[in-house]
Amino acid sequence: MSLSRREALQQSGWILAGVLSAGSIASLVSGCNQSTPSLLGDWTPSALDLDQANLLAELAETIVPKTKTPGATDAQVTQTIDDTLNLIVSDEEKQRFLDGLAQVEAESNQQFGKKFNSLSATDREKVVQALADAAKQSDGGTPNNFQLVYQMIVFSFCTSEIACKEVFKIDQIPGSYQGCIPFSDVGVVWAPI
Fold first, then answer.
1. What is the predicted pLDDT for the residue at 167?
2. 94 neighbors 49 (Cβ within 8 angstroms)
3. Distance CA 165, CA 160 (A)
């Protein structure tokens, strides 16, 4: 059976939609009849424990804060990363991610003698900046676990529905290609879909 290009793209879109929604469905099903975490609303993590999920939520909101645009909490970054850790990544990658979260707590304790969630917004930013500076100076051979955490937070935000609709410009049926045009003509960053 031969497919036209249009039919192939449509079928690929349905497959991708099924894969992306599988994590959401799994999260909904696994969340039934469990206690309500205090900081995360009525959502219960499946790959992280409550302390790790609360730390990730605070860290994500520090990295992508809510301003005049939505923040990490609005984009459900913690839930997305939890689903990714639970359903997609290998055990080795999951452990690297958890080590990155532990790195955040260790830096927080070293600088301020407190857990990250107990710090003020300014002190949280200092912890994140110190970890980012250390990640920049690490050699390419040694993986930096905080860098993985940071990248997953930013990626999860940038690919979220709310970011694509409210932060980035989206044109699902684009017109012609125009390679070199002034940014002022475009106005905003385009959504990554």
1. 85
2. no
3. 9
The model carries a pTM of 0.69
106, with CB counted inside 10 A (0-12, 13-18, 19+), is: middle
Stretch 121-149: mean pLDDT, rounded?
87
Closest CA to 55 of 106, 122, 92: 106
How far is it, in rounded angstroms, from Cα 158 to Cα 36? 27
pLDDT for residue 45 is more than 70: yes
Q: Measuring CA to CA, which residue among 70, 69, 65, 138 is closest to residue 100?
A: 138
CB crowding 59-80: b at 16 or more within 10 Å, else e: bbbbbbeeeeebbbbbbbbbbb
User: What confidence category does residue 64 fall into, taking pLDDT thresholds of 50, 70 and 90?
Assistant: very high
* Residue that wins the pLDDT comparison between 193 and 92: 92
CA distance 62 to 193: 25
Domains of the chain, residue spans: 31-186
131 burial type by CB count under 10 A (0-12 exposed, 13-18 middle, 19+ buried):
buried
